[in-house]
Design goal:
heterodimer, A: 583 residues, alpha/beta, Nucleotidyltransferase, domain 5, Rossmann fold, Immunoglobulin-like, 9-stranded mixed β-sheet, 5-stranded mixed β-sheet, 23 strands, 33% helix, B: 351 residues, mainly beta, Glucose Oxidase, domain 1, OB fold (Dihydrolipoamide Acetyltransferase, E2P), SH3 type barrels, 11-stranded mixed β-sheet, 5 helices, 9% helix, elongated
Chain lengths: 583, 351
């Protein structure tokens, strides 16, 4: 039963990641919600513990030590609600990304329509589509049934039939699914999610409910031209929670203490991004990226329309062993400012996939890890370009256009030794165009805020406004054609105190203009040689008000798209030069 | 901080749960003695089906065709058996083209589950069946030396151990493999040549234990019909001194290899068992620990992957590494006497 978080004063948020489990405390200070403290520990979903509560308890122990607040009673249970002596918390929320991706079979009518939508729906959570079955599937029925049984999917997503549209064809598809389930022992049958023509729901239920566990969601493709993932995504999140509860001991208990509100981490991040897109500049979208061990997730929202993509194949953990299916080793090596062989990079990846919880202890290994993060972001962004409409256009050519702010999470970004390294990973990986702001979630609180936002939006808003997320700085990235070394942007920054900086930025360079956190200034940009800074077209400049970030104002004039020298030594020199320019 | 453990132990009691991935048939009984290659359970992992369109075969409407179906659900059918008919003057019949079992018979169709060889779950180690686990498998109990690896190709076998590695970093060359090794389990250091694995298969060997394997050989190694267990990892890594000593002192002994892949969720790792007769009370290996002083550890990654040492200091606070990262670390005295500061996340206990 869902419980309300309204009127709650304190909140404990738990996030169970693939490698780390975090416990975060939020409470009211001086009349406003604030993020107070965090404790973290290793996630214990795997052997020898096989119970996430071991890791949760250790994270809570650390949180108690750091915050000075007693959260766990003598009976080893969480104290909730808060006691008169101040011990405990009023409410608890939780998110999870730990566990292997769900194995999903996508079933739909037409390849480019409902089947694609079923796959895109699956991609909104931690899952892998292991097979697809459509009307045009050339396999005989018995071969499809055999495949469904052999693959042992956790979930079958059935899409197809616009509203009032095809029903016979849908029934034909359901025959295959139903037969495959019928021929399996009950304990082995997958969950079935029906996200097709809602006019035939009763028939679908009567055909399948005695065979399998069937869940009906709104139609993912109500018309040929319209794809609707929002509502089905919520159903999918619920199914994810249910399946995880069966797969990982301790998850059911975690879900229970949140009142049935356990969310996949990526979905929770998506909620925050959607929320921010509704309160910030409506001419720009908001982007969130999370580069983690289990997946790289991208959430892009524009005026409340969210597109969420979770890529388990692009995680920095066990899945690295298969990464060269997606790009060659040279694509990693090209980002390194130190000389290492392709062999060394491959060996690193295989070792990291064997030991995903290990840390890079050498300069070379750290560079490889950061290079990998760049590649994961590049690939994830390219996948977003396949989105239709406005959102797809904003990822055209593998660059990111028209998003502000861009929120970033993931230990490879937040635990980098230097903030400049985190910024370079984001700039190289996302290659934003125009003017944007990067915000770094150093404490991984974004999913926690998403998990509570729907029930206690005040907490989410106040914590976001409190400076709990680090403003890295305003980034200006011009795009155009000129020889390297040519001045392409004239910048005039007038501080509120009256001082002024004027400079000409050369093509190929990266420049930092100092502006402290909280400090504001007026920035006048005048592109030269018809460069575009996103102010209305090539050559058009203008004035913007900027607020300082940890790295000030950064002008990334290295070119879009970023083209690296083919010669490795020259490339390494350039990386060192850029790193120096930012420090 | 919680510490992962890898077991490399000269003499211990070992209990391993061997389970089918799906319910099946358990073929052993409690207390039964088994060899490592004995099949203890079997299941249909890759079912194959065949649909016989009886209505079409008999040229009848579906409902009418049902009356002429001659087999029942659950019945075993042999290739050539009449499953429907006869109908009409020409006595039309439908025959089964394959062996199988009838799983559905209605609406003018017969669905057959074809008789394919089942997946066979082997014991994986020589010992006794300690207990049965429903319709999934059994727990096998043994005593002996235990060496866990990090990668395996999924095969199970056993044989006499031959040591080809004079040093832990030795590279396995093709000219070291000859007919005298036929049927053996061979220990060597690093392998990077496909021809070596091909020769091993041709001899054939009964197993190959390597310190490390070139990652380019993984696809080939997965297809060989003998078990390959890698103890350290990928790239050119030498065998750690503890495993090297344990294995070399057991040359010419029977060893059992269960090269199942490392599954982090269940904790199952590829394992080498050298069976030894039980004598008195044996140490029970623990699976849960935290890092502490004087523990023997193995370094998992650069700067000294595969090296063995002892923890001599455990700073309370995170320390900066050479690359600027801050991490909870330990000072480890390696076997060469050097002391290095390494993240605890990059260590595992060896015991």
């Amino acid at each position: 039963m869902t419980t309300s978080l309204i009127d709650a004063d304190s909140l404990l948020a738990i996030d169970v990641g693939e490698i780390n489990t975090r416990a975060m405390l939020f409470d009211v200070v001086d009349g406003r919600y604030r993020f107070l403290a965090m404790g973290s520990a290793q996630t214990t979903a795997n052997a020898p513990y096989n119970d996430i509560w071991e890791g949760i308890r250790m994270a809570l122990d650390r949180l108690q030590t750091v915050s000075g607040r007693v959260l766990v009673g003598e009976d080893e249970r969480l104290i909730s609600p808060t006691r008169t002596d101040g011990a405990g918390v009023d409410k608890i929320s939780a998110t999870i990304s730990a566990g292997k991706p769900l194995r999903v079979v996508a079933v739909g009518l037409l390849e480019d329509v409902s089947l694609d939508s079923a796959r895109r729906l699956a991609a909104t959570t931690y899952s892998r589509v292991v097979d697809s079955i459509g009307l045009n599937d050339r396999r005989k029925m018995e071969a499809r049934v055999s495949a469904l049984q052999r693959l042992r999917p956790d979930l079958v997503i059935v899409a197809g039939g616009t509203e009032g549209g095809a029903s016979q064809a849908v029934h034909k598809l359901l025959d295959t699914v139903g037969l495959a389930c019928l021929l399996q022992p009950e304990s082995q049958r997958p969950e079935i999610m029906y996200a097709g023509n809602t006019m035939i729901v009763d028939e679908v239920k009567s055909a399948l409910e005695n065979i399998g566990s069937i869940h009906v969601s709104p139609n993912v493709r109500p018309t040929l031209e319209t794809e609707q993932l929002d509502a089905p995504q919520v159903y999918l999140s619920n199914l994810f929670r249910r399946l995880r509860g069966r797969q990982i001991p301790g998850v059911v208990e975690l879900d229970n203490i949140t009142g049935g509100n356990l969310l996949p981490t990526a979905s929770a991040m998506g909620r925050v991004i959607r929320f921010l897109s509704q309160i910030y500049d409506s001419s720009k979208g908001v982007l969130g990226v999370d580069v983690g061990a289990s997946a790289t997730s991208v959430a892009a929202a524009y005026s409340g329309n969210l597109s969420l993509r979770v890529h388990p194949q692009l995680g920095l953990g066990e899945g690295l062993v298969d990464i060269f299916q997606y790009f060659p080793v040279e694509d990693v090596n090209r980002w390194l400012s130190v000389e290492v062989s392709n062999e060394y990079v491959r060996d690193y990846l295989y070792l990291k996939s064997l030991y995903p919880a290990t840390l890079p202890a050498t300069v070379e290994d750290l560079e490889i890890e950061q290079a990998l993060a760049r590649q994961m972001l590049r690939l994830a962004i390219r996948n977003m370009a396949a989105e239709s409409g406005q959102l797809g256009m904003r990822f055209n050519l593998g660059m990111v256009v028209g998003f502000e702010p861009i929120l970033a999470l993931g230990s490879v970004l937040t635990q980098a030794p230097l903030l400049q390294q985190s910024l370079l990973i984001l700039l190289d990986g996302l290659q934003p165009l125009g003017v944007t702001t990067f915000v770094l979630d150093q404490n991984h609180i974004t999913p926690a805020l998403g998990a509570t936002a729907a029930l206690n939006p005040i907490l989410a808003v106040q914590v976001l406004e409190s400076g709990a997320l680090l403003n890295m700085g305003t980034i200006i990235s011009p795009m155009g054609t000129a020889r390297f070394g040519t001045p392409i942007l004239r910048v005039n920054m007038k501080y509120d105190g009256g001082n002024e900086i004027k400079l000409d930025v050369k093509h190929g360079s990266i420049v930092v203009m100092p502006l402290s956190i909280g400090q504001t200034a007026q920035l006048h940009l005048r592109p030269l040689h018809r460069f575009d800074v996103g102010m209305g077209g090539a050559g058009r400049g203008g004035r913007i008000r900027v607020t300082g970030g940890a790295l000030g104002v950064v002008i990334d004039a290295r070119g879009r798209p970023l083209r690296l020298p083919a010669e490795p030594a020259r490339r390494r020199e350039l990386f060192k030069k850029w790193q120096k320019a930012l420090s | 901080m919680l510490a992962p453990i890898t077991h490399i132990h000269p003499f211990t009691s070992i209990r391993r749960e061997r389970l089918l991935p799906v319910p099946g048939r358990v073929l052993v009984r409690k207390g039964q003695k088994v060899n490592s290659t004995d099949v203890i359970a079997e299941a249909d992992l890759s079912p194959e089906y065949l649909m016989l369109d009886v209505a079409r075969g008999l040229a009848l409407p579906a409902q009418k065709a049902d009356q002429y179906i001659q087999c029942k659900v659950g019945e075993n059918i042999v290739e050539g058996d009449v499953v429907a008919g006869p109908v009409g003057l020409m006595k039309r019949v439908v025959r089964s083209p394959r062996n199988g079992r009838v799983v559905l018979a209605s609406d003018g169709q017969i669905f057959l589950k074809l008789a394919n060889p089942p997946f066979e779950l082997k014991a994986g180690l020589p010992g006794n069946v300690y207990e049965l686990v429903g319709d999934r498998g059994a727990v096998i109990e043994a005593t002996g030396a235990l060496i866990q690896g990090v990668w395996g190709n999924g095969r199970v076998d056993s044989g006499l151990l031959h040591i080809l590695a004079k040093e832990p970093e030795d590279v396995l060359q093709i000219d070291r493999l000859d007919v005298s090794l036929r049927g053996s389990v061979v220990l060597s250091g690093h392998c990077f040549q496909r021809e070596v694995l091909a020769m091993a298969e041709e001899l054939p060997l009964r197993g190959l234990i390597l310190a490390s394997l070139d990652h380019g050989l993984i696809p080939y190694a997965l297809k060989t019909n003998f078990p390959i267990i890698v103890i350290e990892g990928f790239g050119h890594l030498g065998l750690n001194s503890i495993a090297f000593k344990l294995l070399t002192t057991n040359e010419k002994r029977e060893v059992a290899l269960n090269a199942e892949p490392w599954d982090r969720f269940t904790g199952r790792k590829p394992e080498i068992v050298i069976p030894l007769p039980a004598a008195g009370e044996l140490p029970v290996l623990r699976e849960i620990s935290v890092f502490a002083l004087d523990q023997t550890v193995r370094v998992l990654r650069a700067p000294c992957p595969g090296k063995i040492g002892k923890i001599v200091e455990l700073p309370a606070e995170p320390v900066p590494l050479p690359n600027g990262l801050f991490a909870q670390s330990g000072e480890v005295r390696l076997e060469n006497g050097n002391i290095v500061v390494l993240p605890l996340a990059n260590l595992e206990i060896i015991e």
